[in-house]
Design brief:
CATH superfamily: P-loop containing nucleotide triphosphate hydrolases
CATH topology: Rossmann fold
CATH architecture: 3-Layer(aba) Sandwich
Number of domains: 1
Radius of gyration: 16 Å
Helix content: 25-40%
Number of helices: 5
Order of helices and strands: EEHEEHEHEHEH
């Protein structure tokens, strides 16, 4: 997709604060420091659309962006950072769940995993939650530039075994450094959006 415009709309915590649900939304979610913001920035060709940080747990709000005035990207708070207080962890979990459960314009969730790490309990719980509520999702394995090609293939296979990935759920390998996987992710998202019976609905 040719990116003509990519704009930050607003940040929110709870549903009453969300912007109007006028466009189909693609939500990006993963554990803290998995490369979520870098993925969003690479997809839209902007260096600073989504704020990146070396400090895990920095994104504590739900951030909404409009792409080409046709799609919304939603950057959800990262989870699983050990140094965050339990009360904050619970708030983050409640915030993510409220969005995923209640947002009718949600069309797809991009579930992001670091290819160098095994899926965590939080990752598996989120996957099971998406399956339970029948929310479409795509696995993306980030930071593939940190590994050799053979290492990346081996890690992909190991992660797929842990996730019990079916043929239709194969993850896409991605690197913000080399832009590997960028076109494949866009192709998947565009194909998925075009297959929806009604734009802006995941029902």
């Amino acid at each position: 997709m040719k990116i003509i415009s990519a704009e930050f709309i607003k940040s929110a915590v709870w549903p009453p604060q969300y912007p109007p649900a006028t466009l189909p939304e693609i939500a990006f979610v993963g554990r803290s420091n998995v490369g979520k913001s870098s993925l969003i920035n690479t997809l839209v060709g902007r260096k600073k659309l989504a704020k990146t940080s070396n400090t895990p747990g920095r994104t504590q709000l739900i951030n909404f962006f409009t792409i080409n005035e046709k799609i919304s990207f939603v950057d959800l708070p990262g989870y699983g950072f050990a140094k965050v207080a339990q009360s904050v962890k619970k708030d983050w979990g409640d915030m993510i769940e409220a969005y995923l459960r209640e947002r009718l314009s949600l069309a797809l969730v991009v579930l992001i995993l670091d290819i160098r790490r095994d899926p965590s309990e939080d990752d598996l719980s989120l996957r099971d939650w998406l399956e339970h509520y029948r929310i479409p999702y795509l696995y993306v394995l980030t930071k593939t530039d940190k590994l050799s090609n053979n290492q990346a293939i081996a890690r992909q296979r190991a992660i797929e075994r842990t996730l019990r990935v079916s043929a239709g759920k194969k993850p896409i390998l991605f690197s913000a450094i080399t832009q590997k996987g960028k076109n494949d992710i866009w192709q998947f998202m565009e194909d998925h959006l075009s297959s929806l019976p009604q734009t802006g609905s995941n029902s």
